[in-house]
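Hello forum,

I keep getting stuck at the same step: I have a sequence, I want structure tokens, and every attempt I make locally crashes halfway through. Rather than fight my setup again tonight, could one of you with a working pipeline run this one for me? It's a single chain of 402 residues.
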Amino acid sequence: MSRIFVGLETSFVYDLPATLDQGSIQKDKMNGIAAPLFHPRFTRDDHELSDTRDGPQARSDLVMDSRSWTMSVVGNISKWIDMDAATLDTRLSAEKQSNIRAPMEFDPVMGHRAAIMMETDDEEDGDLSDPWKAWDSLRARCEYHPKLHVALEITADLPSAEEIQRWLGEPVKAAIIATNVFLTNRKGYPALSQRHQTLMAQLFQHKIQFYLSGRPRHRGKILPYVQYLHFLYSKRPSQDRKAQFEAPYLDYLQAPLQPLMDNLESQTYETFEQDAFKYNQYEKAITKALEQTPEDKESVVMVVGPLSRTLSLLGSFGDNELSPECLDGAQDFCRVDGVSIPRVYTSFVTPVMSSKLWNEVKVYDSLKSFETPYVVRLTQLLRVGAHPELLPVHSSKIKLTD
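Reply #2:
Ran it on my machine without issues. Output:
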């Protein structure tokens, strides 16, 4: 992703097509808008008086083509639909079936990719006053529906690093940044604090959308805020070869390969060879071993089977492929001072939480799927424990070296 998606989050839009084509969205180089689906004058009450009101609840879908609705508009569930209101009348009005269901049913009809619903606001319930616990309660009630995602509202006061990391383990799809979060730099333009910049760098690692909300507080209206977010994104470290190779596999569950049971294609082994770190370490180890050979002796290097296959035997945790010590028979052909590479390897285990991966396994609707080992390059996760080191595995028959 060469650029990020930056849009505007607003509570009211008078003329949506004009705003997108000739208005602030186009002029300020934004990608889209998040706006209420229903006009506030069509607020429904619990006394059925509003049911007789003439006119549609929302603007016509014909004001724009379907591509504009799909690519540029995210629907906001109106803020006046307050399910947690303190007053009974307001709560009953919000709970009325037509109020909460109508916009949610209307949203997919328009082809919107998402709809944003406001967070709960329950000051009396201590558990639900924690945003993450409120989110966890909501998704549990929705049976962990895979289409339920998180839009983070970035505030001036950020929570602890641990709490931020917990959110990064959730299916975050959007971040809403208020203009009052931005500071003013020496040139009079908006800028974020160092902690906020660190958070943005973490969010950039996930393919999410960013929305600006609130009135502009700097010259140039909303454009300087958009330019600043793109500037932060451009400051990201460029991806090395390893990162580029891993990009398609991030947070993607894969069944472990079985090279001794299945005849793998050469393309698969070419993929193995992209692991530059492993190959570099083997090269260093072989060089070190050869340097230890006395000058008056001849070095003999034995490769058991094709090199790529031998290296692939050092599998993931749980020996899903095979391990070097399983080549026990080959050790009989080595000299007394023979060298085994690697001399030792250790597995580590730690509990993690990843809503995305859990939902992927949940699709199979089988307990076996939850107890099956997978190979995955994790990024969208929360590590909830330490990294205990398991028993190292050594070779015992021949001399060992790093």
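Confidence is low (pLDDT under 50) at residues 306-313, 396-402. If your local run keeps crashing, start a new thread with the error log.
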